[in-house]
């Protein structure tokens, strides 16, 4: 047959399809890769060409009247009767699963058969394109029979795609409805807790309140796991969170009964952080209860929910960890007291903290180390929590820490003597000279290393301390970020600045 049996448009789009198909990235499981950026873009371009091929070969679209039963969200995506070839639909065929709300869900019974038909039609078109490649390489013109097969393959694929699209979206809608049920259940738990709070203090009221508090924490955990499976907590952790919330309420109630002029402690900062985050989630749920139809069933698409869950998880992780360990809390209190003293010695440091300036967070790990070096016995639990490998056994400092303590002691002695006021040889050393030496170190930490007017003694030690500072931040970054957030909140609260979300550059969000 002569090449003229195919129109120029048909030849062009078919050759383009062949070209893109040859670029498919295939995984080790012999499946088309849609995960990598390259693989995704190749498949996307192939599907766009395929959509054009349907039109060029004048393939009558399969009926898509089923879309009338879609929810408004999906009707806005799959509008009317036109074809819509999406990569995620093809991906569900390959994986035989749907990824939604933090989970892979296997294709349901109603989707298995359409998926099989779709895979068969996809493979048949692929085999036909391979035959066209062979014909092209042999310099043989494509026959009318091949053109008829091409139209038949496209028609079969379009019909199979429509059937699977229906099953895919229906299952996605069912998964989203299950997610909305989780939101509704959390809302109910919040309402029951509110009622229990009103009865708290009466006979049996406290026990009911504790039980409902635990139920709400469990419901919030399920929501977090649905947004991202990695956030799911174990039952033991849920118990710690519930107890931490109860202790937080107790701390804040005690603080209200005491002198209001008393400065807040780190425990108070933790309690405020956890309680505020918990109340923010409850506030969101109270609003969601009256607007459940506006909650997107794909929970990650609700920015207000995600923001409040993130804030709750972050605050509760810190609060449960520190309030559950008295030694760790004492170490935190010592580090916080030293940080306050550092801000008093170097007022510019306090100003940086109040402005959430990046330079404050650069200086903070050095301050934590200086706090440890100046009072190692009191602050050791905190360092052990962050860098346990520096301890040969629990509560026993290893050789690296001992060497750092010796270097610090020598530096302080030399600085105390260099001021001309130290009394060398005096029993117990020279406390006043040591204080001046520590103040000098703190000043350098506040303004940065290598500043003009600093002694070589200070610079040498602080450059050594900088390596330890980086280690503190990078060894366990999640733990360090948690500690820095607590200390920052404590300093702001101690200065009367408050510890609202604005302090962290993250406004409260109740929008769905």
From TrEMBL:
It comes from the Eukaryota. This is Exocyst complex component Sec6. It comes from Prorocentrum cordatum.
